[in-house]
Amino acid sequence: AAGTQSATLTSISGCDSTVAMTLTVNPAYNVTEARTVCEGELPYAWNGVTFTAAGTQSATLTSISGCDSTVAMTLVVLITVEGFDTLSLHISNIPYEIPGTNIIITEETPNFSFYQYLLESPGGCDSLVNLWVSIVGVGIEDMEENLLIYPNPASNTLYIKQLNIDEIRIYNMAGQVVLTTTGNGQEVQAISMANLSDGPYLLTVRSKKGNIIRKIFNIIK
Between the CA of residue 16 and those of 4, 6, 7, 21, what are the distances in Å? Predict the structure, then answer.
């Protein structure tokens, strides 16, 4: 430990000499840090250590007194949130600006459009929004009230309850059509999900009058 001790030594002339030694021991520090980053900031470099995911890693650093000190870093990673939504706009409500973006829906916008954009989440990180926008006219309200899809999430079969269906389409998250079928004239129509993988999808149902309803559903097998 730190302190002072003495030793008796013989000098070059043969006489005894007393030497006192004072030893100072500098402490070794063990420090813990924590930081929060967004998923988009990975990989995250810190004192020669690279984080590719959330966790705790240590680094040995030299203190101001020249001694080794161990610093442990705990990294918290906020994941990028991805959301899926639909927006039905009556033609009387356009032009319309999507909140938080500079996207404006006008009369020149196609009746069915797909948008992806980033919004800042409450944690300060970017969130990805997938939005399907449809421009509709009169008559869609009654159709939407009478449309029922089940179960949601679906596994092998999705059932659609609605009379007067003209066409059914299912889109993946990239906006690609993965299934198209026509109405069978029955009140309840069964759609096989056998060829579709797990995940969220957009269902569009067009009536014989030309009205279109869109709903998001999930497949979990």
Answer: 19, 13, 10, 16
CB 132 within 8 A of CB 202: yes
The predicted-structure confidence for 38-74, as pLDDT tens digits, reads as follows: 988 899 999 889 999 999 999 888 776 677 788 899 9
How many C-alpha atoms does 175 have within 13 Å on its Cβ side? 10
Query: Sign of the C-alpha dihedral, residues 97, 99, 103, 108?
Result: negative
Transcribe 190-219 into DSSP letters: EEE-TT--SEEEEEEEEETTS-EEEEEEEE
Pairing label, strands 96-97, 81-90: unpaired
Region of 41 (left: φ > 0; alpha: ψ -120 to 50; beta: rest) is alpha
Q: What is the pLDDT of residues 171-192, one digit of tens each?
A: 887 778 999 999 888 889 999 9
